[in-house]
Amino acid sequence: MTRTARWIGGASALAMILATSPAYASGTTAGTTITNTATVNFQVGGVSQTAVSGSDSFTVDRKVNLTVAEVGSTTTSVSPGQASAVTTFLVTNTSNAALDFSLAATQLSGGTAAHGGTDNFDATNVRMFADSNSNGSYDAGTDQQITYLDQIAADASARVFVVVDIPLGRLTGDVAGVRLTATAREATAAGSLGAAITQTSGANASGVDTVFADTNANGNTARDGADFGDDDYTILAAALTVTKTSRIISDPINGSTNPLMIPGATVEYCIAVANAGGSATATNISVSDTLPAETTFAAGFGILVNGTVTSGTCNADGSAGGAHNSGVVTATLSDIAAGTTRTVLFRVTVN
Predict the structure, then answer these.
(1) Whether residues 24 and 138 fall in one domain
(2) Is 262's pLDDT higher than 50?
(3) Contact 147, 183 (CB under 8 A)
(4) Is residue 323 within 8 Å of residue 340, measured between CB atoms?
(5) 8 Å CB contact between 163 and 105
(6) Across the chain, how many H-helices and E-strands are there?
(7) What is the pTM of this model?
């Protein structure tokens, strides 16, 4: 019933379910006996006789129906390397009987994802969880990992979280489509997944018959006792570029007037770290630079961090920071938002 997809399923059993019960859209409960009695009053010779009556009874059959829909209407924005990224689905039992539902989480194999863009990568470590504490949000360590939903009443819903890890190395705009499929099963003993359900063939029987009523909405297959919903993860990454430049400040012969790169000359290094427009903010940025053996760190000048660049030239407007140890310059930069550049500036002398 699905488009091309790969099984990646969940890992555990059982479910703890939050269910809400609106008015009975699913109709009269399957197995209900409906009885109707007709009464006939009459007379003989003008005298009222004892009324006679006739009754008929029939049993309401089972209509199997369900929907699976994403919660929300936008993609889930994620970062490269992010663990436990969450999409949320609502599985609703629109049947007229309680049912179990087996669950499958799959990923698209290319094609257009739910919120546009082309599916071009797979997430990893895909799992499914029930909203065990019924608060509407995924809570690691609290919500129970599941592979099915247990005994969902007619007109009730259960929230299911699909939780994945995002691989490193993905770029802004990359998309991973994910699908949750629920398939109706018998609601037998609590704590175990019921047997598969089949439709009744042939004419109406005296007992409870079963008919599949699910539709082909949103690309589903009609009347197969299953339904799926789609969502996707879209990468919002930082796009950092590093540019290292040098300029001569002075030499011991010419001073600062037309200085040359001779031994004893002072050279200024600038490491510019830029984040492209439309990217995620880069955080916890550390810079490390091993100095050439032919140079000596200029301790008297120090290190300036979080400076700016104008027309490709680094400005000496940063604040004191960083460290030099055994020929290695290290520095920590503040967060770099999209479209922003920060620098590390220091000087050396030519040996």
Answers:
(1) yes
(2) yes
(3) no
(4) no
(5) no
(6) 0, 27
(7) 0.80
